[in-house]
Amino acid sequence: MKSSFKKAFFDTLPILAGFLVLGIAYGILFVEKGYQWYYAVLSSLLIYAGSAQFVVVSLLATDINLINLFLIIFVINIRYIFYGISMLNRYNKVKNTKSFLIFGLTDETFALLVDSKQDDKYMFFVTLLNYIYWALGTFIGSIIGSDVVFNTRGLDFILTALFVTIFINQWRKTKNRLPLLLGLIVSVVMFVVFKNNFVIPTLLVLLLIVLLFKNKLTKGRIDD
User: Fold this and answer.
1) CA distances from 128 to 16, 116, 181 (A)
2) Which of these three, 156, 173, 190, is where a domain ends?
């Protein structure tokens, strides 16, 4: 167990750096809306969906109804359906911590686990540590934001920057870069065609491509 925790800790250090910055930014943005710091922490503990949380906090001051808010969050988080399908075989073999692993599956956790051959304990510690990092960052940010006035313009771009970093890291580690190129090209094309509504079309097109060309796309994965 110690070796699994140690490896998980060192593997998640880049995420620690990113999540602390992101969580602090989120905490500051949250309390800036006039809410108490503990609501920010609770939202990170219970929702735990970085990009969706940034959207929620930006909509708190608007008159958006709960149904529209639900639909927006659903669209943003629909990518986790595809993450879940990719991790189905791995998670089915887990006994005691399966529910937490499902709850804690984020973009960053998925990036570490999808091509990993480590055991169940490693998967649990990676998921747990990333969860703690995000909550800790939110706590720090919400406390700071309660006492200090910040110019928060541009803070919501931090999440995009982290996604770019993950993409670069995957590009450097994998032998077969075709899936990354396809994801990038399809995303750009769908954005040009559908503008801000490109997420669902992009995921559907990528799912179709994966189903049709699974063998070619999975050849040369990180663990090969």
Assistant:
1) 12, 16, 31
2) 173
CB contact set of 39 (below 8 Å; sequence gap of 6+): 30
pLDDT tens digits along 37-71: 999 999 999 989 877 888 788 777 666 677 777 77
Those residues with Cβ within 8 angstroms of residue 76's Cβ, 6 or more apart along the chain or in another chain: 49, 51, 52, 55, 199
Please list the alpha-helical segments (H only) found in the chain.
2-11, 13-32, 37-46, 50-59, 66-77, 79-92, 98-103, 107-113, 120-147, 158-173, 178-194, 199-212, 214-218
Give the range of the structural domain holding residue 221, as residue numbers without chain letter: 175-224
Pair (180, 163) in one structural domain: no
The secondary structure of residue 175, as a DSSP letter, is S
More confident residue, 123 or 148: 123
128 lies in the same domain as 181: no
Domains identified in the chain, total number: 2
- Taking residues 176-186, report their average pLDDT: 81
